[in-house]
Design goal:
Oligomer: single chain
Bound molecules: uracil
Structural class: alpha+beta
Length: 284
């Protein structure tokens, strides 16, 4: 958890107006007390692997020992087949059948299907409906990872892991976000190519990772845009720029995490596997 890039901290909760630089999401969690063992901590030598696995819900200790024996568990990339290895849950990367799992139980990450009309902020001094109201007292220290415009709906991650929030939101990690946009106007045939090559907006160029038309009906289309940009209103501005004003915008994925069939306003805790994949993506 050390050696993170500097925090370009911004605390503006406003969701309107174009801004400079990356802006999507810089609300950071406080460093978690569990980050580093304190002077009184007695876990400098770590904990037994099977105990850590069992506590993470992988199976009973006996089952975990069998899994170790079968070569299904790796620590920091190396398969472990001896029993009793000691690991540090705060630092070591543990994988089951090659899939990284989150083993710290003090870190939680949730996915929310943010409804339109709700602002992306944990509180609001103007008493507007905000995601903080929806989260309630689910977990201490939760922050939103990135922002969605007030009118945008869909997948918003919330976590109490400050470093994870920071990395997922920082442009240098290039985490891809997927959006479905309902647009009016007809989509030119060469648009995907143009958007992949990049277009110039008033605050600089933007490129998409992919673009496709999902549906077209009665002068309206639904398009899917994947990009790793975090500038304000980027999808709406990009599509308006190419003559396709957006009437509805939904984020359907952040990296490997999918909105799935979550109901609007619902919240779910990410599984250990989902969390492991997310951490792997940003090098944690
Ligand atoms: N792009 C937008 O235009 N709005 C969002 O909320 C997110 C990305």
């Amino acid at each position: 958890m050390n050696g993170a890039p500097d925090d370009p901290t911004q605390d503006d909760d406003s969701t309107t107006g174009g801004g400079e630089g990356w802006s999507e999401d810089m609300e950071l969690a406080p460093a978690h007390p569990g980050d580093r063992p304190g002077p009184d901590s007695d876990d400098r030598d770590g904990e037994r692997l099977q105990k850590v696995l069992a506590r993470a819900g992988v199976g009973s200790r006996r089952v975990c020992e069998d899994m170790i024996e079968a070569g299904r568990i790796s620590v920091n990339g190396a398969v472990v087949q001896v029993q009793g290895m000691r690991v540090d849950p705060a630092r070591d990367r543990i994988a089951v059948d090659g899939v990284r799992i989150e083993i710290r139980d003090d870190r939680v990450t949730y996915a929310m299907n943010k409804p339109p009309g709700v602002i992306t902020a944990m509180s609001d001094d103007r008493a507007r409906a905000c995601v903080g109201d929806m989260v309630g007292d689910l977990a201490k220290g939760l922050v939103h990872v990135g922002r969605l415009d007030q009118d945008t709906e869909g997948l918003l991650l919330l976590t109490n892991d400050g470093e994870l929030a920071h990395r997922l939101a920082h442009p240098s990690y290039e985490v891809r976000k997927t959006y479905l946009a309902q647009v009016s106007g007809s989509v030119p045939r060469d648009l995907a190519r143009r958007l992949r090559a990049g277009v110039e907006l008033e605050d600089g160029p933007v490129k998409v990772d992919s673009f496709r038309v999902v549906d077209t009906h009665a002068g309206q289309s639904v398009v899917e845009v994947v990009l790793h940009e975090g500038r304000k209103h980027i999808v709406r501005r990009l599509l308006a720029h190419v003559g396709l004003p957006v009437s509805r915008l939904t984020r359907t994925a952040v990296g490997p995490i999918q909105l799935q069939r979550m109901r609007s306003g619902s919240i779910r805790r990410l599984s250990k596997e989902e969390l492991g994949t997310l951490q792997e993506l940003v090098g944690l």
